[in-house]
Write a structure and sequence with these properties.
The chain is α/β, with parallel strands linked by helices. The protein has twelve helices and 18 strands. The protein folds into two domains: 200 residues, Quinone Oxidoreductase, Chain A, domain 1; 136 residues, NAD(P)-binding Rossmann-like Domain (Rossmann fold), CATH 3.40.50. Helix 5 packs across helix 6. The radius of gyration is 20 Å and the shape is globular. The N and C termini lie close together (11 Å).
Length: 342
């Protein structure tokens, strides 16, 4: 089969690799129907995160089960399934607590494991990892389902960590795919005012479509003062979705005393936290990688019912053969997010 590998910084390639096979009785083999390039894929692509040449790429994908091991009971061949960006056994203590991304026997797609930007994937712990859709999916529905595997679930996690409540005001930092989905998640949670602070002026209309009521520029020196003035001294909740030092510092500037920051951006380059300000003003900082599996079933039900549609986050859909083009477009900010069709 063909799979995407990272050969060196700035260079991905679709290449022939051995077909995946059942290794353990809890495995499933899944044929990928649709995958995506994620903003976090750009960290190793840019050489800003360690990798080994030949690492598999991609952790966002949906597909159809082709074969299952002897112990698999929850999914069967022919099922369309969602795969969260991390696999987990689903039965250990941390999984029972809903922290699937901390499963001691689990892992993440890509690297030495199979990646989702491929024609097929071997799924360990299929019963604990995969979520069957139990519905026929045309191209439009697949595009609505795919964000649930990462960016939509991560946006929900950001608003959950931040404690967004009905009728509240929230600031979302970052206008990448996660930040845009966090706007949608905040609207889903009942927030009355959703202020997106981003760095790409051309994404304002999309941000409003995804739920933002206000869009501000992160590099506008008046933005902090404007938010504080219009919210009476800061907001009760900030969803930090960029993972940069500047974004975390801005979150601390914008949250009011007693407020909460939910930080889900991968913190590459973050090396300090103003702990004294948090302490002095009783500000809560909650951070963590999203346990996407925890959120999949309720989000799936909302998509199938027509109550939730995160598909506008995709700028384009390309064949898997053009994966290198997709990476370049995202790296140069010509696209928010690109879906890949094997």
């Amino acid at each position: 089969m063909r799979a995407t590998v990272l050969q060196e910084a700035g260079r991905v390639r679709l290449t022939d690799v051995p077909d995946p096979v059942i290794r353990d009785p809890g495995d499933a083999l899944v044929r990928v129907r649709l995958a995506a390039v994620c903003g976090s894929d750009l960290w190793p692509y840019r050489g800003q995160e360690s990798f080994t040449p030949g690492d598999r790429m991609g952790h966002e994908w949906v597909g159809v089960v082709e074969e299952v091991g002897a112990d698999v009971a929850r999914v069967r061949p022919g099922d369309l399934v969602l795969a969260p960006f991390a696999f987990a056994d689903g039965i250990c203590r941390v999984c029972r607590d809903g922290l699937f991304t901390s499963c001691p026997d689990g892992g993440f797609w890509g690297g030495r494991n199979d990646g989702g930007q491929a024609e097929a994937v071997r799924v360990p712990f299929a019963d604990g990892t995969l979520v069957p859709v139990r519905a026929d999916a045309d191209a439009a529905l697949l595009r609505g389902l795919l964000p649930l595997t990462d960016v939509m679930a991560t946006g929900v996690h950001a608003t959950s960590l931040a404690g967004v409540r009905p009728g509240s005001t929230v600031v979302v930092l970052g206008d990448g795919a996660v930040g845009l989905c966090a706007c949608l998640a905040a609207r889903r949670a009942g927030a009355e005012r959703i202020i997106l602070v981003g760095r790409h002026p051309d994404r304002g209309d999309l941000a409003r479509r995804m739920g933002a009521t206000d869009v501000l520029a992160a590099d506008d020196p008046a933005a902090v003062g404007l938010v504080r003035e219009e919210t009476g001294g800061g907001v009760p909740a900030v969803a930090e979705c960029a993972g940069t030092q500047a974004a975390l510092d801005l979150a601390i500037d914008l949250v009011r005393p007693g407020g909460t920051i939910g930080s889900v951006g991968v913190p590459n380059g973050v090396d300090r936290v103003d702990l004294y300000r948090l302490f002095r003003h009783n500000i809560t900082l909650r951070a963590g990688v999203a346990p996407a599996r925890r959120y999949l079933e309720p989000l799936l039900a909302e998509v199938l019912a027509g109550h939730l549609d995160p598909s506008p986050v995709f700028s384009a859909e390309l064949p898997l053969d053009e994966v290198a083009t997709a990476y370049r477009a995202m790296d140069t900010r010509q696209a928010v997010k690109i879906a890949l069709r094997p």
